[in-house]
Amino acid sequence: MQNQEPLSAIRPEQRAPETSQSEFNAGAAYIDGNIVPISEARIPIMDWGFLHSDATYDVVHVWDGRFFRLNDHLDRFMTGVQKLNMTLELSREEMRDILARCVRATGLQRAYVEMICTRGIPAGNSRDPRTCRNRFYAFAIPFSWVATPEEQDRGIRLHISEVQRISPQSVDPTIKNYHWLDLVKGQFEAYAFNAHLSVLVDAGKHVVEGAGFNIFIIKGNTVSTPGTGVLEGITRKTAMELARQLNLDVEERPVHARELAEADEVFITSTAGGIMPIHSVDGKLVGSGRQDKTLQLRALYWEAHSDPALSEPV
Amino acid sequence: MQNQEPLSAIRPEQRAPETSQSEFNAGAAYIDGNIVPISEARIPIMDWGFLHSDATYDVVHVWDGRFFRLNDHLDRFMTGVQKLNMTLELSREEMRDILARCVRATGLQRAYVEMICTRGIPAGNSRDPRTCRNRFYAFAIPFSWVATPEEQDRGIRLHISEVQRISPQSVDPTIKNYHWLDLVKGQFEAYAFNAHLSVLVDAGKHVVEGAGFNIFIIKGNTVSTPGTGVLEGITRKTAMELARQLNLDVEERPVHARELAEADEVFITSTAGGIMPIHSVDGKLVGSGRQDKTLQLRALYWEAHSDPALSEPV
To answer: Is residue B108 included in any domain, yes or no?
Structure first.
């Protein structure tokens, strides 16, 4: 993939003098104005971001020293904050600076970088969310994979769960959120079915999304992905752009669970791993087992990480 | 209501020597084996209880120095822990002791006492929940009201939201959980409609539950409350028991939104406030405005707090 570039030197004010670099290698977080080692990063138990999961977040990744599509992630994050009736006292430039400082503190060339806005703590004994001062947290940790490159090579086994993804009539999925109990239940189901991952369905048995990933199928020259009830993933968006570059037709439409059995190829997308081919669905090989178009898309995806139009140095 | 009883003396080992009682008056929490003032109580940002809202909890209250139905709350909590494939290293007796220590540290006679089990932090860079050591937290803060006694006297205004409560096909509502973004959206809708509270509906426009409360209607001699898709509230259970004592018929069944307009009385139940009469629904007075049966139930509810079969000293 890309060459490793040296990161900018860590500015001394970014860490307490008594903290050694090794404590930051596992990750760094921005909490209440300070950059601290991830092992020491704590949030108030009374923050409704925890007690009501009243929060939105976004994850951008750093690959070989460069943020990938940071502006897209910031756009989505700030839209989510607004949709939840929250406001932050930080400017977009200040957030960008905080994220970069977290990454630099770790010294990581490849990182998983999360920004979070929570409701905060209500005034006194109130139960009124309007009394809260909203809070911003961030952290950078080593890059994390929904399925590692080795698992991708050996073949990712997907299970179609009977658990329904939380409906958009309840929670707007375009606001990236921590409501994962359905996804966690699906994940335990995957283990029970000897699969790596589960994809959840809607009430009509259309596949929707899984724990941190969107899903696509390829049939002939057409790439299809669910268009509603899903997070509008940045990797999903990139995959659609790249598919059009390969002169594939791209459709956003409901995809029934049974279509996975008939597809030529199936793949998933996530900031945590990019474009990842699915080898089998509920024990049945996908298509003929060839993943030509998916692997082409995956190669283009990683090549795009050095494109200055899509990436920038930390 | 009840006389104030003196609480047992606070044992000195329950707090750090440099911490003054006044710091504990706002609340106390159990974190990693220590009892700390609520203002200092923090959890790791990496705990999936926060990052995936992968957690269950329960709230028991203390009234005039006595826990109310603590065994019921512990039963529900431990069932939720098990349903989420979590295990705790603490025994039921140890949890009971921790909750009491939190309350005693605050010196509060009337308290809102929360116990929490989170997934914890995965090992290394894993995304597998089975690698987590599950964590137990608890805290006690001053008693909190969904609607204060003064608001109840002036009349609680309820709004029927169009937001759908997260479906039981997605998240089991009998596992008390922090998936509140639908409830928070409903709460902002209530403010927009000049109401105190919102109740959410299901896909068929049946009322389900609101932010921390169950709902009931009374028509003639019959008390009805939704039987599925709701938290099995302990106050809900108490209200049903008391209604039967008053020789009312009690039904658990789907309750359509339009039935609230035709009901004689409407009330809500919560550990945070008990049995609370609703004065109006979407601007329309409930029934004739009389709340005779609800006020009778409310009086019985508070009387039950000194019943040794239902309560115990902290």
So the answer is: yes
> B29 and A45 in contact by Cβ < 8 A?
yes
Same domain? B178 vs B194: yes
Give me the residue from A84, A146, A166 closest to B127, CB to CB: A146
Task: Say how far apart CA B9 and CA B21 lie, in whole Å.
Answer: 12
Total domain count, chain B: 2
Phi, psi torsion values for B256, nearest 5 degrees? -70, 145
With a CB-CB cutoff of 8 Å, which residues 185-214 of chain B face chain A? 185, 187-188, 191, 203, 211-212
Considering only residues 17 to 46 of chain B, which have any Cβ-Cβ distance to chain A shorter than 8 Å? 29, 31, 38, 41-46
Which of A142, A162, A177 is the endpoint of a domain? A142
Domain boundary among A113, A142, A171: A142
Residues B31 and B118 occupy one common structural domain: yes
Assigned domain for A6 exists = no
Chain B contact present for A164, CB below 8 A? yes
Min Cα–Cα distance to chain B from A141, Å: 9
3-class secondary structure, B89: coil
Q: Would you say the ipTM is above 0.90?
A: yes
Q: How far apart are CA B110 and CA B7, in angstroms?
A: 11
* Cα B276 → chain centroid: 13
Tokens of B69: 């139905």
In a domain, B42, yes or no: yes
| Cβ-defined contact of B144 to A167 (cutoff 8 Å) | no
Give me the helix-helix angle, B70-83 and B234-245, nearest 10°: 130
Q: What is the pLDDT along chain B (314 residues), one digit of tens a residue?
A: 333 333 333 343 444 445 678 899 999 999 999 999 999 999 999 999 999 999 999 999 999 999 999 999 999 999 999 999 999 999 999 999 999 999 999 999 999 999 999 999 999 889 999 999 999 999 999 999 999 999 999 999 999 999 999 999 999 999 999 999 999 999 999 999 999 999 999 999 999 999 999 999 999 999 999 999 999 999 999 999 999 999 999 999 999 999 999 999 999 999 999 999 999 999 999 999 999 999 999 999 999 999 999 999 99
Q: Do residues B216 and B281 share a domain?
A: yes
Q: Is A16 on the interface with B (CB under 8 A)?
A: no
> A162 and A120, same structural domain?
no
A124: nearest CA partner in chain B: B26
Which residue range is the domain that position A134 belongs to? 12-142
Contact A96, A74 (CB under 8 A): yes
Question: What's the CATH code of the domain at A211?
Answer: 3.20.10.10
- Which residue on chain B is closest to A197 by alpha carbon? B128
CATH assignment at residue A95: 3.30.470.10
The answer to whether residues B299 and B245 touch, using CB atoms and an 8 Å cutoff, is no
Interface probe with A: pick from B53, B156, B183, B231, most Cβ of A within 10 Å: B53
B150 vs A: CB within 8 A: no
- Apex A91 CA angle, A90 and A97, nearest 5: 90
Cβ B54–A180 below 8 Å, yes or no? yes
